[in-house]
Amino acid sequence: MEFFADRAEAGELLAERLQDAHDPVILALPRGGVAVAVPIARKLDAVLDVLVTRKIGYPPTPELGVGAIAEGGEPVLDLALLHRLGMTPEDVADVVERERGELARRVRAYRGDRPLPVLEGREVIVADDGLATGGTARAALRAVRGAGPAKLTLAVPVGAGETVESLREEADEVVVLLTPVDFRAVGQWYDHFDQLSDADVLRLLGRD
């Protein structure tokens, strides 16, 4: 069974699969995706920044994601799941607004007043540390697609096979190193999978 020592090693391995990228912009999904993206950006000598996303949780059980939102994009809701839960998009409107506020706070924390790099006409690689349901990655890809990139790639070390396949509809290319049959959680495929703080993100970006 294959495992990654940590996110940095996973990023190094991903970078080897991305060397044909032409002058890309790397957008990392905080927080864990930043640790994966740093070695990719270093290897490709690429611009690196964050693309902030927020999960939209099911109100009675916020840990259950019913959608996500990324900066510059609209909320992406799992309408089939909402239907099974007996809910409509209007039922999570308050959650969406709350997450918009937290998203804006994190953008200020990570980037200050600087805008995202120009993405139109560029090759863009969206990086994260893994894919479970893929909700935040889907929201991120749709937000980036709206900015008009020349090519949009999703790069992750590990992901659930069904999720990876569903996201091929959103990206021009999906680069993934492992799609284990017995996937249960992203963290199980790393020897070290510490939770990162905002301070960790800023340190990794050289903005502390």
End-to-end distance:
37 Å
| Structural class by secondary-structure content | alpha/beta
Number of strands: 8
H-E string:
HEHEEEEHHEHEHEH
**What is the number of helices?**
7
* Mean of residue pLDDT values: 94
> The CATH topology of the largest domain, please?
Rossmann fold
Q: What is the share of helical residues?
A: 25-40%
Instruction: Show unreliable segments.
Output: none
Cα-atom Rg, whole angstroms?
16 Å
Structure commentary:
The chain is an alpha/beta fold and 208 residues long. It has two domains: 7-53 and 120-204, 3-Layer(aba) Sandwich (Rossmann fold); 54-109, Ybab, Chain: A, CATH 3.30.1310. Helices cover 36% and strands 22% of the residues. The protein has helices spanning 7-17, 32-44, 79-84, 93-111, 135-145, 161-167, 198-204, and strands at residues 25-28, 47-50, 53-58, 61-70, 76-77, 123-127, 151-158, 173-178. The strands form two sheets. A five-stranded parallel beta sheet has the order 2-1-6-7-8, sandwiched between helices. A three-stranded antiparallel beta sheet has the order 3-4-5. Helix 1 crosses helix 2. The longest helix has 19 residues, at 93-111. It starts with 6 loop residues before the first helix and ends with a helix. The model has no long low-confidence stretch (mean pLDDT 94).
Kindly summarize this structure in a few lines.
The chain is an alpha/beta fold and 208 residues long. 36% of the residues lie in helices and 22% in strands. The termini are far apart.
